[in-house]
Amino acid sequence: MRKLSIVLALLATFSVVASSAIAQDKKSILDWPSTVVAVSGQTADIVSTVRFLHNGSGCTEANPRFGPHPTTGALITGKTIALGITIGGSMVLNALANHSESPRVRRFLRIASRSSGYYAGGVGAWFAVQNVHLCGW
């Protein structure tokens, strides 16, 4: 339960910092809103997974990379790596957009960058809802 509290505290801190930075410069390579959505959705998935693994429901982790009963550390490590790749890819797309001379290419790259963050957050949130629905809280 202590680890769950730490994760929630980190998420809350990140959300406060991110919300103050949402009005960002167009040349920034980090898209804060989509980053906040990605981290929030994936954190919700971790929190709900850890909860159902310890609530006596008998539910198991469906992701074969983690195994049926992963540790909290393994879940956090796996999600952190996945988020790092997602956010890093998003930053690369924004950096390319900043150096493009074509307005159409810039717009396409920025939309692709944002979409990756929103997609990662949506998938995490969907799995969190499924966890709570199927395994209880």
Instruction: Output mean pLDDT.
Output: 82
Q: Nearest-angstrom radius of gyration?
A: 17 Å
- Helical proportion, percent range: over 70%
Tell how many strands the DSSP assignment holds: 0
How would you explain this protein's 3D organization?
With 137 residues, the protein is an all-alpha fold. Helices cover 74% and strands 0% of the residues. It contains 4 helices and no strands. It has helices at residues 2-20, 32-53, 72-99, 103-135. Helix 1 (2-20) packs antiparallel against helix 2 (32-53) and helix 3 runs antiparallel to helix 4. The longest helix has 33 residues, at 103-135. The mean pLDDT is 82.
Summarize the helices and strands and which ones pair or pack.
Elements: H1 2-20, H2 32-53, H3 72-99, H4 103-135
Task: Produce a short descriptive summary.
With 137 residues, the chain is mainly α. The protein contains 4 helices and no strands.
Question: Could you name the key traits of this structure?
Answer:
0% strand; elongated; 137 residues; single chain; mainly alpha
